[in-house]
Amino acid sequence: MGNKEKGANAERELLKMFDVNTWKAVRVAGSGLADESPCDLIAGKSRKKYCIECKTSKDKKRYIDKRQIEDFLIFSEIFGMKPLIAVRFNHEGWFFIKPQKLERTRSKGLAISLEKEKKKGKRFGQIFV
């Protein structure tokens, strides 16, 4: 299974979690492929609206392009949604991170570490239930 397929499966998994918990959510078509759709999911319930960028990792750290997150933040602001990064580390489940909490790397990029998220990260039920 390729990375794109793994990512799409992870997005579908998260979409189902929203559905089971009575949230409405949709996958954004072409996410990650075009400048017009810089997020993966949009989720809402009552007055709560989230723009979500999904990542997966088999490693203990997931690196993210800073420009991608900048575009994601602009998109979420334009539509009045709260931005969240959802990351699923293999065998660890989902963590949800505010973009401002991403780690800065030496190369001026961004990263999410499993170690940090295990200590301070939020789980689905802490945000969406």
Please give a structural write-up.
The model has no long low-confidence stretch (mean pLDDT 90). The longest helix is centred in the N-terminal third of the chain and has 18 residues, at 3-20. The protein is of the alpha+beta class and 129 residues long. The strands form 2 sheets. A 5-stranded mixed sheet has the order 1-2-3-5-6, with helices on both faces. Strands 4-8-7 form a 3-stranded antiparallel sheet. 33% of the residues lie in helices and 33% in strands. It has a single domain (3-128), classed as Trna Endonuclease, Chain: A, domain 1 (3-Layer(aba) Sandwich), CATH 3.40.1350. Strand 2 and strand 3 form a beta hairpin. The chain is built from 4 helices and 8 strands, in the order αββββαββββαα. It is globular, with a radius of gyration of 14 Å.
Q: Low-confidence segments, ≥5 residues, pLDDT <50?
A: none
Give the C-alpha Rg: 14 Å
Helix-strand category: alpha+beta
N-C termini distance: 32 Å
Q: How do the strands line up in the largest sheet?
A: 1-2-3-5-6
Strand content: 25-35%
Number of separate domains: 1
